[in-house]
């Protein structure tokens, strides 16, 4: 068994690391200052400027097919890059990307929605969650009623990332109540903000925040249906599926950086005349953190590898998401403890990570939903224990 990365993987990872170190990390001080003053961490033009710089470095559209100017990187390579991004808390991501399901758009829709999103001229958001339907997304109620060649949307979506900034939303709506979500009763619509939906900011414990989207008789033409009528829930599940290995990949980067900070602090901070790192209580926190980090790394890389092999990645991605999200929460908690009072201040990013990573156990499938998927696969015999080694 060979655990080493290929020369190409090492080279791309190194270039990404260099870009993050040279161009992104220098902004960290300013980002913390702004956030302490309740200002946005990075505005739209600053992010775009960074993304264009990254484009010159060769990073544009990590997952975007080459015909759209992207890199179309294998999942393992994307995972390695997301880990590098995670090493800085500046809310940066490489440009040239679009929601995976936007590639189902027809030619007209591609010109209107997909290409401008890839180019960074338009911002999208994806909306399935509702006040009455989160983990049980199949229970959504936002309705789309056909009226001539239009559809009229009524209802509310909630917790929508980018919902405040988005120019358009990909909205999963009920088009046939009788059929239910899994029976083809939902459809995805591309809905411009000008069509009349409005957003309301939701305060959270994290920086930035998602939004509620309110639809009151929002009229959408049939030509704005994404994919087929009845395909909404299926597209929604595909959208969520991608995050199951990118979220824990990002978590690895956060944990690596935070743990290194704790190690440096343990070697320099002195109590009772000696560095705190000489105490076994501190040493064990460091040892446990590295062990869990490595365990998460291999779960994440195997999930990404499974994608690259064209195998069904759902089971391994659920394990990576469940364990990776838990790992980063435990590591950041220990890192905060090692920093003592300093860890609790807003001088350092540690308390920021502590707030940020709590979300990782909730969105794109809670811990409980991942456990439900994993146990169901085993109980029904869809997956054998250790089956991936067969
Ligand atoms: C910051 C943020 C950004 C988000 N971004 C988006 C987005 O862009 N688009 C989007 O559509 N959604 C988004 N979401 C929504 C997110 O996916 C949901 O919050 C998540 O799926 C959980 O749903 P819920 O909050 O309704 O919790 P609920 O489903 O009400 O669950 C509450 C608790 O009960 C547990 N639970 C539920 N059912 C079971 C069960 N059967 N067995 C055991 N435990 C159970 C859950 O795990 C959870 O702990 C976002 C959420 C947040 C907080």
UniProtKB/TrEMBL annotation:
Keyword Cell membrane: no
GO term, biological process aspect, one: fatty acid beta-oxidation using acyl-CoA dehydrogenase
Organism: Micromonospora pattaloongensis
Protein name as annotated: Acyl-CoA dehydrogenase
Cofactor requirement: FAD
Membership in a protein family: Belongs to the acyl-CoA dehydrogenase family.
Domain Acyl-CoA oxidase/dehydrogenase middle per the UniProt entry, residue ranges: 125-208
Keyword Hydrolase part of the UniProt annotation: no
Residues in Acyl-CoA dehydrogenase/oxidase N-terminal domain copies: 6-121
């Amino acid at each position: 068994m060979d655990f080493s990365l290929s020369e190409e993987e090492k080279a791309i990872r190194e270039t990404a690391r260099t870009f993050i170190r040279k161009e992104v990390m220098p902004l960290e001080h300013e980002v913390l200052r702004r956030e302490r003053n309740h200002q946005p961490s990075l505005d739209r033009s600053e992010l775009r400027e960074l993304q264009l710089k990254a484009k010159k470095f060769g990073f544009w559209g990590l997952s975007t097919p080459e015909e759209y100017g992207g890199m179309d990187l294998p999942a393992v390579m994307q995972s390695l890059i997301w880990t590098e991004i995670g090493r800085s808390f500046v809310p940066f991501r490489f440009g040239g990307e679009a929601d995976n399901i936007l590639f189902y758009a027809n030619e007209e829709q591609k010109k209107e929605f997909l290409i401008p999103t890839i180019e960074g001229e338009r911002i999208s958001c994806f909306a399935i969650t509702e006040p009455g339907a989160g983990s049980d997304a199949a229970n959504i109620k936002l309705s789309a009623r056909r009226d001539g060649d239009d559809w009229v949307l009524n209802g509310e979506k909630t917790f929508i990332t980018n919902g405040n900034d988005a120019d358009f939303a990909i909205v999963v709506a009920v088009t046939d109540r009788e059929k239910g979500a899994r029976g083809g009763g939902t459809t995805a619509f591309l809905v411009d903000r000008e069509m009349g939906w409005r957003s309301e900011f939701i305060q959270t414990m994290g920086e930035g925040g998602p939004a509620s989207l309110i639809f009151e008789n929002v009229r959408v033409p049939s030509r704005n249906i994404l994919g087929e009528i009845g395909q909404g829930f299926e597209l929604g599940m595909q959208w969520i599926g991608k995050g199951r290995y990118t979220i824990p990949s990002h978590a690895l980067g956060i944990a690596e950086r935070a743990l290194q900070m704790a190690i440096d602090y343990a070697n320099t901070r002195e109590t009772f005349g000696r560095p705190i790192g000489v105490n076994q209580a501190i040493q064990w926190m460091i040892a446990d953190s590295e062990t869990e980090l490595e365990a998460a790394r291999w779960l994440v890389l195997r999930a990404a590898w499974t994608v690259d092999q064209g195998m069904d990645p759902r089971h391994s991605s659920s394990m990576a998401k469940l364990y990776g999200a838990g790992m980063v929460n435990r590591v950041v908690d220990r890192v905060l403890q090692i920093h003592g009072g300093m860890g609790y201040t807003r001088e350092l990013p540690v308390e920021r990570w502590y707030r940020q990573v709590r979300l990782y156990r909730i969105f794109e499938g809670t811990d409980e939903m991942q456990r439900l998927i994993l146990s169901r696969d085993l109980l029904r015999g869809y997956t054998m224990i250790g089956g991936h080694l067969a």
